[in-house]
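anyone seen this seq b4? input:
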Amino acid sequence: MATFLYKLGRFAFRRRRFVALIWVALLAVAGVGAATASSPAADSFSVPGTESQKTFDLLGERFPGTKADGATARVVFKAPDGRQVTAPAQKQAVEKVVGELKSSSPQVASVSDPYLAKGVAKDGTIAYAQVTYKVSGFELKDDARDALKEAAQHGRDAGLTVEIGGNALQAMPETGATEVIGIVISAVVLVITFGALIAAGLPLLTALIGVGIGVSSITALGSVLDLSSTTSTLAMMIGLAVGIDYALFIVSRYRAELAEGREREEAAGRAVGTAGSAVVFAGLTVVIALVGLSVVNIPMLTKMGIAAAGTVVIAVLVALTLIPALLGFAGKRVLSRKARKAGAAPAGEEDGGKPNTGTRWARFVLRRPVAVLLAGVVGLGVIAVPASSLEMGLPDDGAQPTSTTQRKAYDLLSDGFGPGFNGPLMLVVDGQGGKDPKAAAAGVAATVAKLDGVAAVTPPTFNQAGDTAMLSVVPKSKPSSTETEDLVHEIRGKAGDAARDADARALVTGTTAMNIDVSEKLNDALLPYLALVVGLAFVLLMVVFRSVLVPLKAALGFLLSVVAALGAVVAVFQWGWLADLFGVEQTGPVMSMMPIFMVGVVFGLAMDYEVFLVTRMREAFVHGERPGQAVVTGFRHGARVVTAAAVIMISVFAGFIGSSESMIKMIGFGLAVAVFFDAFVVRMAIVPAVLALLGRAAWWLPKWLQRALPNVDVEGEQLQRHLAPEPAAQPEPAKV
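predicted toks r here
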C-alpha cells in the first residue's frame, strides 16, 4: 500500500492543476445539487420492532386521517393569585385564546376546550388546552408556531399566566458563537504548530472543502435517500475534525521530508506513502465505528452514521490527493520564514540540536514506566467512578432549563394535575376479529385502573369501524422516572392478559412509552455493537501493526478513556458539578443514546492517534531501532503533531457545548472530554509506558498469524526497498 500511495502522492503533486480542478468541480457539482434539491425531508423518528412503533403503525391504519405522531402543544393557563380560571373574566380570556388557536393555522387538527374536556385542575387555579397538529414537530411551519405564541401572549395580556409545553415548539438547535471559536482556536493551533500561515491554512482549507462536498451531497440526496435535515450535523462535526487532522499529518510529514533534504515531489510522495498509509487505516477505523451504528436498528441513527462515514471517506481522499496537489502550489512556503532562510533543521530537533518536548517526554516515561502507567490508570479510574451512578433516559420538557416556557408549563401541569400528567400513556385495544371489542376495551380499562401506579384512565375512544379503541393512561409518577418505566411493563403484562382473555390484544405507546422502548433498545444493542466495532478494529490494527499486544492495549486504553468520559458526563450533566461553567441549566438523566454514540465516535477518533503515533514507532522498529529507541523516535516525530491534532479536535467538539439543545451540548462535551483523556492520558502516557514494559514482546506475532494476515506495509518497508538505489555492478575478476 505504501508504494501505491507514494506513486499517488507524486502523481497528485505533478498533476496538481488537474487534481485541484477535479476537487473544485466536485464541490461545485455538490453545491449546485444542494441548491437545486427539494426541501430536506422532515426528521422522522421510528424504532422498528418495538411495541410503541407497532402501535403507532396500527393507529395509522385503524384511525385514517389522524397522525399518531403529530405535534402537540399544551397551552397551560393559571389564574392570578386568589382567583380561579372558572371565574367569568378568566373563563372568557381562556375561551378567547382557545378560539384563536382553532383558527391559527391550517396545520391545526384540533383544540380541546378546557371546560368541556375536563382540563381544569380540582382547585380551579390551573387549566390547559390541548392543541393537536396534522404534522410532526419538525414539519410544523414557523407561522404556526408564531400563531401559537401570539395566542398565548393575548392570554397574558388579559392577566393570565400562560405557558406552552409539548413538542410543537421544537426547533432546530442553535450552536452559538462557541462553534466559531472552536474553528478560530484550530487555526491558532495550526499556526503555532507549523509557524507558517500557508502550512496552517492548508488543513483548514481542505477540511472545509471536504465537509462542503459531504454536507452538500447529503442535502442534494436528502429527498432521494430520505435523509433528514439533521443528518448533516454529525457529518459536519466529525468531517471537520478528521479533515483537519488527516491533512495535518500529511503536511507535517511533508515538512519533515523536506527537512531531510529531499526534492519537493519526492517529499510529497514519501509523505503520502508513509503518513498517508496511517490516514487510510485511521479513516477505516472511524468508518467501521460509524457504519456499525446500523446494528442498533434505529433508522435515524443509521443514516447519521453512514452520512458521517461518507464524509470521513471524502476527508481521506482529500488528504491523499488534494493536499499533495496544494503542496505543489505552495512550494517551500509551507516552511516558516526562518526555516527557509536558515535551512530546515533536522526533523524533530529544535534550535541548537536540543531534543524537542516529545523526545524529552518519551525518555521520561521510559525511565519511570510503572509510575506513569499507574498514574494514568488510577487517574482515569477515579474520574470514571461517577459512571457507576449512570441514569439514562430521553429528555422531556422536565429537562428543559427553568427559564423556558416548556419547563414552566411542565411544572404548572405537575402542580395542578400531578407529575404523571406530563407523560400520559396511550393504550390501544385491538379487537379486530374478536367477539366484542367494546367489552374487551372496558375490561382492559378496568384492569389498568386498578394498578397502583395509575392516576387515571380515560374512557375508550373507538375508530369508525368500532374494532379498535384508544385510552389515555395517566401515571402517578413523572415521565422520566423508573416508576413510570416499571408501570409501562406492568400495563403491557396485565392489560395484555386481560385483552387475550377477551380475544383481543392491548398495546402501549405514546411519547413516554417510545422513550422507554428506545432506551431499552439502545441498552440491549450496546454490548453487541461494542463487540462488533472493537472486534473488527482489533483485526484491522493487527494487520497494521503486525502485533497482538499493541491492538489489545489500544482497545483496553480506549475503553478506559470512554468510561472516564462517561464519568465526567455524569458528574456534570447528572450530578451538576461545574454545571454553571458549561451552561447546564437543568440536570437529569444522561441521554440514552450517549453511551453507544460515544463508543462509536470516540473509538474511531481515538484509533487515529494510536495509528499515527504507533505506526511511526513500528516504522522505526522495523528499520532496526531497539524498542525503547523506537518509542522515542515515534514521539520525536509525532508527539507535537498528535498534540496539535487533539487540541484541534477538542476545540471543534467543544464548540458544540454552546448549543441551545441539551443533547448536542452533552455530545459536544462528552466527545471533547473523551478525546482529551484518550489523546493526552492514554496515547501520550499509558501507551509508551506499556510499550516500555513490554519491550520486544509488544511486536510479537505468531508465525501462523503472520502468514495468515495480509502485509499492507504501513511502515513503508517495501517502499524503502523500492526507493533504494540499485547496487553497483561488481567488475568481473580478470582472467589469468
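DSSP finds 24 helices and eleven strands in the chain. The first strand starts at residue 72 and ends at 78. kinda curious what u guys think
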